[in-house]
Amino acid sequence: MHGYSAHKDDYIKRLSRVEGQIRGLSRMVEQDQYCIDILTQVSAATKALQSVAIKLLEEHMAHCVAQAVAEGGDTATAKVKEASDAIARLIRS
User: Fold this and answer.
1) CA distance 53 to 50
2) How many angstroms separate the CA atoms of 41 and 49, rounded?
3) Contact between 3 and 63 (Cβ < 8 Å)
4) One-letter-per-residue 3-state SS of 51-79
5) What was the pLDDT predicted at 3?
6) What are 27-30's contacts with CB under 8 Å, separation 24+?
7) In the chain, which stretches have pLDDT less than 70?
8) How far apart are the first and last CA of the chain?
9) Over pLDDT 90: what percentage of the chain?
10) How many Å is the Cα radius of gyration of the chain?
């Protein structure tokens, strides 16, 4: 079981909202809305996705990484590296 499983419904709701925001962005472009208004909505959608990513990362650290560290050895090292790489990708995005 994944660390986020207990909150799966919440993640699905959040991602559905982001999906709606993206559809709204498409409509704005189709309707030739003002550039700055579209960019404002892009920023909002980006922040919403980042929020989901941070929550998932927190769940991963609390569940998967903590469990691996308790077990120790190569598994712990691999999980910490995996989490560090995920953080690096989030920072770059």
Assistant:
1) 5
2) 12
3) yes
4) HHHHHHHHHHHHHHHHHHHHHCHHHHHHH
5) 77
6) none
7) none
8) 28
9) 90
10) 17
Judged by DSSP in three states, 13 sits in: helix
Q: Say how far residue 36 (Cα) sits from the centre of its chain.
A: 25
At residue 51, the pLDDT reads 95
In the numeric block, the tokens 């892009």 are attached to: 42
**In 3D, which of 15, 92, 3, 12 has the Cα closest to residue 49?**
15
CB count within 10 Å of CB 68 equals 19
Tokens representing residue 47 in the block: 């922040």
Q: Give the CA angle between residues 57, 62, 64 to the nearest 5°.
A: 80
The two tokens of residue 68 are 């691996």
The answer to whether 55 and 63 have CB atoms below 8 angstroms apart is: no
Give the residue from 65, 59, 26 showing the smallest Cα distance to 45.
26
